[in-house]
Design goal:
The complex is a heterotrimer.
Chain A (H helix, E strand, L loop, with lengths): L1 H22 L2 E10 L5 E10 L2 E7 L10 E4 L4 E4 L1 E6 L28 H7 L3 E6 L7 E4 L1 E4 L6 H4 L6 E6 L2 H5 L16 H30 L11 H10 L3 E7 L2 H13 L6 E4 L7 H7 L2 E4 L17 H7 L4 E3 L10 H10 L5 H6 L3 H6 L17 E4 L10 E6 L2 E5 H24 L17 H9 L6
Helix pairs in contact in A: 5-6, 5-7
Chain B lengths: L3 H27 L2 E8 L7 E9 L2 E6 L9 E4 L4 E4 L1 E6 L27 H4 L6 H6 L3 E6 L6 E9 L5 H4 E11 L22 H33 L10 H10 L5 E5 L2 H13 L4 E5 L7 H6 L4 E3 L15 H11 L4 E2 L11 H10 L4 H6 L3 H6 L17 E4 L10 E6 L2 E2 L5 H9 L4
Parallel strand pairs in B: 1-4, 1-5, 6-7, 9-10, 10-11, 11-12, 12-13
Antiparallel strand pairs in B: 1-2, 2-3, 5-14, 7-8, 8-9, 14-15, 15-16
Chain C lengths: L2 H23 L5 E8 L7 E9 L2 E6 L9 E4 L4 E4 L1 E6 L21 H13 L25 H5 L2 E6 L6 E4 L1 E4 L5 H4 E3 L4 E3 L15 H27 L11 H10 L5 E5 L2 H13 L4 E5 L7 H6 L3 E5 L17 H9 L3 H8 L2 E5 L7 H12 L4 H6 L3 H6 L17 E4 L10 E6 L2 E3 L51 E7 L7 E10 L2 E6 L6 E2 L1 E6 L2 E10 L2 E12 L2 E7 L4 E8 L2
Parallel strand pairs in C: 1-4, 1-5, 6-7, 11-12, 12-13, 13-14, 14-15
Antiparallel strand pairs in C: 1-2, 2-3, 5-16, 7-9, 8-11, 9-10, 16-17, 17-18, 19-20, 19-27, 20-21, 21-22, 21-23, 23-24, 24-25, 25-26, 26-27
The chains are: A alpha/beta, B alpha/beta, C alpha+beta.
């Protein structure tokens, strides 16, 4: 019996290693300056990748690859972990369900657009993983989503297995905007003040708590053998209940010091924590309180004065909170800024004198921690996903640019390939335009499309010529 | 009962303080500075690896490797540091916009389509919190512009320091801001309703054409107005025309003394704007210029410079290369078109250097990137005798840095504007100081 | 009402409807279509055969069938006989929700100025329930007049599934024959399925849901509520004593057959990701589903095969928008989509996915066959194209015993054409619905929303494969003449109601040259010429420009002329308002 078992295990192992060999899924990045984000910088180092994971990272002479490994010579180049955006609205077909003040039932996962060109543009800037958030039109928005930017793959392939569940909260001017409607003809929606925002959230927590009790009572009665009907499943309250059970992390949009403290206290009242404050522009004013509460901070690096509650924003925010022991990340909230996280991080060496590794962590390891993915991504360590960016110079030099971005060992952006692709795109486009000119076809009347109704943000842009942040 | 003597002392003390402050103020204007042992990047001339800059009466008095230091000079030892001309941002609304979402703090956009007599300088708030913030990474000078309508008003080239708008002005009327009428153009706003899927309709096209016609008529009116005015001046027997403030404001433009600064991005619009300028013999600067490379030959031939829209900007279409905005400057440089960089707004004036630097990461020679935030904008706005390089006789707008000012990590250690050592603290740094060690 | 009794009622109603239908069919005449090539679809092609129609049904078909003595004979020598075509998803016979925009129609876009008014109206409208109620039945909304389906019948379309196009829960669809009788006599199956869309469209106010993810959450909750409602009533009915009675809920009740997998849902989708999301939702709740539209299904043919999905494929191919200033400005993905959409049917066929054709958003029924011909050009076998508009939809809707082929005993929905259905020059010569012969009519512009192109839609000329001219109609029945351009010329007194001011009187003087309109309108600073004046049917459009100080204001006007009066809207780039006018005698 024992022998038989042993043999079968041996056979299994052999089979496995044969499969591995047949795939020869090894890549060696050689002779690079490796900024690990976890344990300093390795000059003249190599990274060995197998089956999408980092299996070795060390000085070049210490890393040995198999003979059929694909070798990428990176002499003179820099390698960093792939960047992680802890607050993004990229690649979503819809951002705000702004009709109600609490929309915990909606899920951003339903709206992922895997064909959005911004995925590719951000890859070209070294981004590999994004936290796709609901907008900030309401006090409690929807459930957020996480994807890796595997351009060309399906939504399912982009999703991250066992990703944590997170939800968007929003405080301050945005959630109260619908209480003070932009159009005079629009009806107002509660709340219209920061007081109302607090009570909206307290109400949702309270309902969630009652919902838990309702189900607990039902389970108890069932156990007693009573003929009871299960309560109605309510998707909004299911989410609120899971927030109260600590199964869904709160990521809250906020600006002012007072509202940051408000939410922390409110959560404590219900025995839970704000997992991460988002934007948190005045976080530096209440850093001790944020630290005491135990929340993380995911911030806009140097935006300011675009609205009243952003007037006291300062670029030293990251450094101040970091020195208070808060895990700080930099986020984009913007399709453009998301393309150059290396610059956003680099600036933080100036604003508050962070060290090189501290600055790098703001866009790699720290967002990974905030998203509970630091066991898998965020630094160049053995066992982690091979999500890497190769730069032609120091990533914090304004004169450098990413040359290659890979996710799980697979190359999704390569500048050389990109330059070749441009000609192909231009040619295909030209051919298609020519073809339509040759065959214009009949004009066929169709039903009119319903007009696209602008979002809150569109309206703001239109009426004030400005852009808001979600 | 109050003792008398202390009262007198108090009065004397007050007088003394007042006098001292007056003295300090005047001293400041006339102070002599010597920046020694610095690497001096003059931009227009050779870089001096170790030299001295002398500042006197608000001007650069001397610059060189072997310049003697006047005995009354305040000496700044810049060993290990570099001196650069102050950076120039070629399109902003500095001083006109405080909090973007609060309308009452905004003075950029007057009503109407034609308002050439609106002067940005009038509304610049010298005490805006944005001004010291704009300085923090080396910007000493900006073009600040009115917005909206077809002719928005007069842009001012201002220094980022001064007690009054007039003290800030390098050139009060540096350019006439003009928005070339485009499809879907709708005065204030535009945006979402401008053009939706389904293409352009005839009404929009006709509206655009009418607006162009109206613009041309405005220019012709101004030409006629000037002609009549000159005729009256020459021949007093002719009846004087009543003053028209709008047309009056157009005279320097008609004479070619002040350029029109035309915001246009699409190739067709840029081309039409340049042709319009040729037709009426106006000096023109293109602002935006996203498609400038498509009409580079024309721009080069007519010697039309471009104020580039922000480099740190998304491509304009799905199919455009990801680095379209990053590499635009390099392409224009290769095509021989003169250009300058801008932050196109207010909150990111302090990231102007990174716009220039990023263009260099995508093919633009580094020296050109620096010129496009110093001497090129000075030339474009006719202020190259005043600012944009370190040359004797120019306004002493200088920055002393611990490295390349276009680099992300570089810090500005000292700044001079109008020869005055400028305070580098600002709203950000004050709040930082107040809160960083908060109990 | 308890779910079970509800179902019984539905069943009873269906039977009742069918019974009524068979009664009505007995009144038909007897016909013999003689000498044509009979394309039976399910059997072999019969050259030079005879089809006998009696009592609304196909009484006989074959090469050697005798012509009954009492039959009216249709000489079809040199012609082709086909089963009547089926449009597998339409809004025929329904008045769509009034679009607030002026409706430039055609090519999917109104004027931006109109859209602006529509958008502002939509944003300001109070929340409404329209499009949120699954209990809405299409059969109750049918509005059928004698000429309602003239254009369809003239294009060879004799039956269709129909449901509204707006909303999330769009209604329980009806399958109807496109005859001219009362709707009760035309219904073949109602309700057949629940039509579901994933956006609320315009005009619903700011109510929940107003986002894509909101729609998904709304649908999930609705299905979960139906399951709960079912269980709740079962729990109560089993032993009501001592229990509180559950409340009734029409919406949840209507969804019980859906969540029980008995009533299929039709998921209205377009893009690849629409398709995947909709399929995902259907699988989550184990729904029986059909996909409708699916113009981008060419990208996911294998996926659809793997899911064993059925597609009601739209033949409304994406078109180049009018007035594209710079062709380069269109994205490669847009260009590709236009090039690839006609290939979707071939891709589905190749992958082995079951599909039927629908007219989608096309408003000119003749384009249904014309675009099927384009699908053939793009690689779909011709016989498959024919099946996708005959027997396949009949099978998909469980009507293969009644429709979809020329077989004895089936409903006599037949068309006779001058040649091969898919040839450009072929004309439909005769159309039978329920054994009744209908006059082929030139398709005029039927009133908007009744299955024809919207008023003001681009005329675009007669399609090459369009219906025959009225002179070729087999009977002398009156056919409607093509609309002559109405007379707009004259002096009109307008009452204009600009916002923020009382009514203003304006004088509009119009001259007419064909459809071209010139003239002038009075203003506070004297008369102003009008530009871009056009007459499209009875719809007048023009623009004019008001100048004040240095500004100008472009005003676009659009009005419908009825006799000596007109009503319409004026729009600027920031507002819109209505006006009316009368012609001076």
């Amino acid at each position: 019996m024992k022998t038989y078992r042993f043999i079968s295990l041996a056979v299994l192992l052999c089979t496995l290693s044969l499969v591995a060999l047949a795939q020869s899924n090894e890549t060696l990045i050689r002779n690079a300056t490796i900024m690990t984000a976890s344990h300093g910088t390795i000059t003249n180092g190599s990274i060995l990748i197998r089956d999408g994971k980092i299996v070795a990272v060390d000085k070049a002479d210490k890393v040995k690859a198999s003979s059929n490994a694909k070798v990428m010579d990176a002499t003179g180049m820099y390698v960093t972990p792939g960047f992680i955006d802890s607050h993004s609205h990229t690649a979503l077909d819809s951002i705000n369900e702004g009709s109600l003040s609490v929309t915990a039932m909606v899920r951003m996962r339903d709206m992922v657009d895997n064909t959005n060109i911004n995925i590719y543009r951000q890859l070209a800037g070294g981004m590999t993983l994004i936290h796709q958030l609901h907008g900030s039109a309401n006090a409690i928005g929807g459930q957020n989503n996480l994807i890796k930017l595997k351009w060309g793959k399906s939504v399912e392939e982009m999703l991250i297995a066992d990703a944590p569940r997170t939800i968007k909260f929003a405080l301050g001017e945005n959630p109260k905007r619908r209480g003070n409607p932009t159009l005079p003809s629009q009806s107002a929606r509660f709340p219209a003040t920061r007081m109302g925002v607090e009570e909206t959230i307290r109400e949702a927590f309270t309902q969630g708590r009652e919902y838990i009790k309702q189900w607990d009572d039902y389970e108890a009665a069932k156990k007693r053998g009573e003929d009871v009907l299960p309560p109605r499943k309510d998707l909004k309250l299911e989410a609120m209940a899971d927030v109260l059970r600590g199964k869904i992390d709160i990521h809250s949009h906020c600006y002012r010091a007072d509202e940051i403290v408000m939410l922390a206290r409110l959560c404590e009242e219900f025995g839970i924590k704000v997992h991460t404050f988002q934007h948190v522009l005045e976080g530096y004013k209440v850093a001790p309180e944020i630290k005491a509460h135990g929340a993380n901070a995911s911030i806009l690096p140097d935006w300011w004065a675009y609205k009243m509650e952003a007037y006291d924003a300062i670029p030293f925010n990251a450094a101040i909170m970091h020195r208070r022991g808060i895990v700080v990340s930099i986020h984009s909230d913007d399709n453009e800024a998301a393309r150059r996280f290396y610059q956003e991080a680099g600036k933080m060496m100036k604003y508050g004198d962070l060290s090189e590794e501290e600055a790098l962590r703001l866009v790699t390891l720290n967002p990974a921690i905030q998203l509970r993915l630091d066991k898998r991504v965020g630094s160049i360590d053995v066992g982690k996903d091979a999500d890497l960016v190769i730069f032609n110079g120091h990533p914090f030099s304004v004169y450098s640019r990413p040359e290659t971005t890979m996710i799980e060992g697979e190359i999704y952006f390569d500048r050389k390939q990109d330059l070749e692709m441009r000609e192909k795109i231009a040619k295909e486009k030209k051919d298609l335009i020519e073809r339509e000119k040759r065959m214009p076809g009949q004009v066929q009347p169709t039903l009119p499309q319903p007009p696209t109704i602008p979002t809150e943000d569109d309206l703001d842009t239109h009426l004030h010529g400005k852009r808001n942040r979600n | 009962m109050k003792p008398k003597i202390p009262n007198l002392l108090l009065i004397l003390a007050v007088i003394a303080t007042f006098a001292a402050s007056l003295l300090a103020q005047s001293k400041d204007m006339t102070a002599v500075y010597a920046i020694r042992n610095a690497k001096i990047v003059t931009v227009t001339g050779a870089t001096i690896e170790k030299g001295t800059v002398i500042i006197r009466d608000g001007k650069i008095a001397d610059v060189g490797a072997n310049v003697s230091v006047p005995s009354n000079a305040k000496v700044i030892d810049a060993t290990g540091l570099s001196v650069y001309p102050g950076l120039i941002d070629s399109n902003t609304v500095l001083g006109l916009n405080e909090v973007a979402s609060v309308d009452m703090t905004i003075d950029t956009t007057e009503l109407g389509d034609f308002k050439p007599n609106m002067k940005a300088l009038t509304a610049v708030n010298p005490h805006s919190e944005h001004i010291p913030v704009a300085r923090m990474n080396g910007v000493t000078t900006v073009l600040t512009c009115p917005q909206g309508g077809i002719i928005s008003g007069q842009c001012a080239l201002i220094n980022a320091d001064g007690w009054t708008p007039q003290q800030m002005a390098v050139k009060g009327s540096a350019a006439m801001a003009l928005n070339y009428p485009v499809l879907g153009f709708g005065g204030r706003g535009g945006g979402f309703f401008a053009i939706q899927a389904g293409g352009v309709n005839d009404a929009q096209r006709q509206q655009r054409d009418r607006q162009v016609e109206a613009l041309k008529k405005k220019i012709e009116d101004a030409q006629a107005y000037l002609k009549a005015k000159e005729a009256v001046a020459a021949d007093k027997s002719l009846p004087a025309r009543p003053v028209d403030l709008g047309l009056e404001a157009m005279i320097p433009v008609i004479k070619g003394e002040v350029p029109i600064r035309v915001s246009a991005n699409k190739a067709n619009d840029i081309k039409a704007a340049v042709e319009l300028a040729s037709q009426y013999k106006l000096k023109i600067v293109i602002n935006g210029g996203e498609d400038a490379i498509k009409v580079a030959a024309l721009l080069k031939e007519k010697n039309v410079p471009v104020i580039l829209s922000a480099v740190l900007e998304l491509p304009d279409s799905e199919d455009a290369p990801y680095d379209q905005a990053y590499s635009r400057a390099a392409e224009l440089h290769k095509a021989g078109v003169k250009f300058a960089f801008s932050s196109q707004g207010i909150q990111f004036i302090r990231t102007l250097p990174y716009n220039a630097g990023t263009a260099a990461a995508f093919g633009l020679p580094k020296e050109e990137a620096l010129k496009a935030v110093t001497i090129y904008p000075a030339q474009i706005f006719g202020a190259d005798k005043l600012v944009g390089s370190i040359e004797a006789g120019k306004i002493a707008n200088l920055i002393i840095t611990d490295g390349d000012p276009l680099e992300l990590r570089t810090k500005v250690k000292h700044m001079f504007i109008n020869g005055k050592q400028t305070d580098l603290t600002n709203k950000h740094s004050r709040l930082n100081d107040k809160f960083k060690d908060r109990p | 009402m308890k779910p079970r009794s509800y179902l019984q009622l539905v069943l009873a109603l269906s039977l009742l409807l069918l019974a009524r239908h068979s009664v009505s069919a007995q009144t038909g005449e007897t016909y013999a279509i003689k000498g044509g090539t009979i394309v039976t679809v399910t059997g072999a092609i019969i050259p030079n055969g005879v089809v006998v129609i009696r009592n609304g049904l196909i009484a006989a078909v074959g090469a050697d069938v005798a012509v009954p003595a009492d039959a009216r004979v249709i000489e079809a020598a040199g012609m082709m006989v086909y089963p009547g075509l089926i449009d597998a998803y339409s809004n025929y016979g329904l008045r769509p929700a009034e679009q607030p925009q002026g409706g430039l129609g055609g090519r999917g876009g109104g004027a931006p100025a109109n859209q602006q008014a529509a958008i502002l109206a939509a944003l300001s409208a109070p929340p409404s329930n329209v499009g949120l109620l699954p209990e809405t039945t299409v059969a109750d909304q049918l509005q059928i007049a004698a000429e309602t389906f003239d254009a369809q019948r003239s294009a060879g379309i004799t039956a269709a599934l129909t449901a509204p196009r707006d909303g999330i829960f769009r209604g329980q669809s009806a399958f109807i024959n496109l005859g001219n009788e009362a709707s009760e006599k035309l219904l073949l199956k109602a309700p057949h399925s629940l039509s579901i869309g994933f956006s609320r469209g315009g005009g619903f106010g700011g109510g929940y849901p107003n986002s894509g993810m909101g729609v998904f959450a709304f649908l999930r909750q609705a299905f979960m509520d139906a399951q709960h409602y079912r269980d709740e009533w079962n729990w109560y009915s089993k032993a009501p004593r001592g229990k509180n009675r559950p409340a009734h809920n029409k919406s949840s009740e209507a969804l019980i057959p859906v969540v029980n997998g008995r009533m299929p849902v039709i998921l209205n989708v377009t893009s690849e990701r629409d398709i995947r999301r909709a399929v995902g939702l259907a699988e989550e709740f184990k729904l029986k589903y059909l996909l409708a539209g699916a113009t981008q299904s060419y990208l996911v043919a294998d996926y659809l095969k793997q899911k064993d999905a059925t597609v009601l494929l739209s033949l409304s191919f994406p078109q180049k928008p009018a007035n594209v200033e710079d062709p380069e400005s269109e994205s490669l993905s847009t260009l590709r989509n236009r090039a690839e959409a006609p290939k979707a049917a071939a891709a589905l066929h190749k992958a082995g996915v079951k599909f039927a054709f629908t007219s989608g958003t096309l408003t000119r029924p003749a384009d249904f066959v014309a675009n099927a011909a384009r699908a053939i050009e793009a690689g779909l076998p011709k016989d498959e194209a024919l099946k996708a508009m005959t027997i396949y939809p009949a099978q998909i809707f469980g009507l293969a015993e009644q429709l979809g082929s020329i077989e004895k005993g089936k409903i006599a929905n037949l068309i006779v054409t001058s040649g091969d259905l898919f040839n450009r020059d072929t004309k439909v010569k005769f159309t039978f619905v329920d054994g009744k012969q209908y006059v082929i009519k030139e398709a005029p512009a039927p009133p908007r929303g009744m299955g024809g192109p919207p008023a003001g839609g681009r005329p675009g000329g007669r399609p090459s494969s369009g219906p025959a001219a009225p002179t070729e109609a087999p009977t002398s029945a009156t056919s409607r003449p093509a609309p002559a351009a109405i007379n707009a010329a004259g002096t009109w007194t307008l009452t204009v109601n600009p916002p923020g001011g009382g009514p203003v009187t304006r004088t509009l003087t119009l001259k007419q040259d064909g459809n071209k309109i010139t003239g002038e309108i009075s203003s506070s600073s004297g008369p102003v010429p009008i530009g871009d004046g056009k007459l499209n049917g009875n719809e007048l459009t023009f623009i004019y420009v008001l100048r004040y100080n240095d500004n100008e204001l472009v005003i676009a006007a659009r009005a419908k002329i009825e006799g000596n009066s007109m009503t319409g809207m004026m729009e600027t780039n920031s507002t819109s308002y209505d006006f009316s006018g009368t012609r001076k005698p």
